[in-house]
Amino acid sequence: MKKSNFRVPALVLSVLAIALALTSCSAVFDSAISGTVKDRNASSQTGGIADVMVYAYDDKTAWENAYNSWDKKSVFSDSSVPSAKTTTDGSFSISSLRWKTNNPVYGKDADCKTIYLLAFHKDYGLVKVDGRTVQSDKSNNFGIVYCEKVTETKNLVIKFKDKEDNSTTASGSDSTITNTTGFSFRYSYNDGYSADDEDNVGNTVTEITNGEYTLAVKYKKYNEDGSEAVAPTVTISEIQSGTDWSYEGAKTVSMAYSSTDKTYTNNSLYFTNDWKTVAVTVNLKDGSTDNAVTDPIYFKWEYNNGDGETVKSDTVTTSTGSATINVKFKKNMSSEKPCTLTLTKFDDAEGSKDYWSWTEGLNENGVKSDTLRDLEYKLTLTLNDDSNRPSVDVYFRKNILKLGSGISGYVYSASGVGEGIGIKDDDGKAITLHDSTSQIRQEVRTTYEVVAQSSSQYVINHGYFTGLGAGAEIKLAYETSERKPFESDTIELTVKREGTQVGTIKLTSESANFSNYRFETT
Predict the structure, then answer these.
(1) Tell me: the pLDDT tens digits for 402-457?
(2) By Cβ atoms counted within 10 A, which residue in 233, 350, 361, 475 is the most buried?
(3) pTM of the full predicted structure?
(4) Do 466 and 368 have their domain in common?
(5) What are 285-325's pLDDT values in tens digits?
(6) Please, which residues have CB within 8 angstroms of residue 104's CB and are 6 or more apart in sequence?
(7) CATH code, 143
(8) CA 220 to chain centre
(9) H-helix or E-strand containing 17?
(10) What 3-state class would DSSP assign to 39?
(11) Residue 57 sits in which domain range?
């Protein structure tokens, strides 16, 4: 028998090969998802949570294994799958989803896939998000992922106290240090995401306001066994206090939360001030009356802390007759180099130079001097640890006498009779006031004044004047070599009626207002 040579046509073989190839090749698809992570119990309408890490899984087993692998202590992370961090409004977007399949749902054009999410934030823990179907080659909105907080926050108010404060305004034996410039410290505590004996939260604080710093202590609400956790103990260390204070206490301080008082109770740090501040009162006085000088007085001051160099200097202008200077010096300084406060140039000011001259104060030996001082004279006070609130009186002499309401009185004819003192001819005359060199301010005109009434008869003073020289500033003359301390020499003023002298008035620095002078004319 003859064998048959049956052959499959080439065309059929080609078709079979192509069909086999199509059924054995896989396809790769890409997709993207977006969504928003929100706090389920947030009071705001948006409630978006920032900084949440979102992880996308396309395999359910891998998703469950990843969730079960978290020990509830560590920060969860998985670099094997696509991920993204939420923005400030809680939104996220993952555009790197890719999978491979031999049986795409829509053939070679498109496919769909179930994606599972894990979302992690230390405040919310690790949250499982059930799978949702996404399509390839498009952006899929995953919707809203809700989370609930697993952390609690307690405020620790750290107070910086002056250990030796004795101020009457202090609350108790110590008071809060309001000026904490240069203060700093480091804090650390365990928020529940680390081993029990390891502090995993910490930072250095340098901005302290009004002697206090409020630390928001955030920690996991519940222990691993489900019991309610207690706010963690905060460790304070590396305590610095600038140049003016010395820290009094342990190198590290543990501030524990009291479950009974529901607050941090041991929350104060104590310091001692290396410096003492003394308020020195400078009283500016009129040497002739001992009254305060209420004209503007300007003076300079400076002090040193015993090293011979000026620590601080400034100027003062006061119109109250008193000024306060706060002097700060190092405690326990050497008695050989005390703190000295120097006052100078009192009569180098507007007001002082015109109306007053500095005459005396305490000299370097603490003794009063009654001699006039030049502009370079320095009044020096010595301060030490025993100084509480010292004061010093600085005396002045008047250079100018200011007439307050002016001089009032009568200029009348001695021979006058009739309707009262003087005659009608005494009215309407020009009256002027003069010092030794010139007329003082304005002239006034005389008139008449009804001074009494008896039944129908009037008693009238003719030649009446008022306000003569009101506001005038008269330079006081001194015989320096003969004058007694604080006593002004007499000033003699001349009164003239229409250019003719009718009388004199003697003034002293104690006289400022005058009335009822009577001058007779012939």
Answers:
(1) 787 788 888 888 766 555 677 888 999 999 999 888 898 889 999 988 877 766 66
(2) 361
(3) 0.53
(4) no
(5) 887 677 898 888 888 888 887 666 677 788 888 889 999 98
(6) 27, 29, 110, 111
(7) 2.60.40.3330
(8) 36
(9) helix 10-24
(10) strand
(11) 26-147
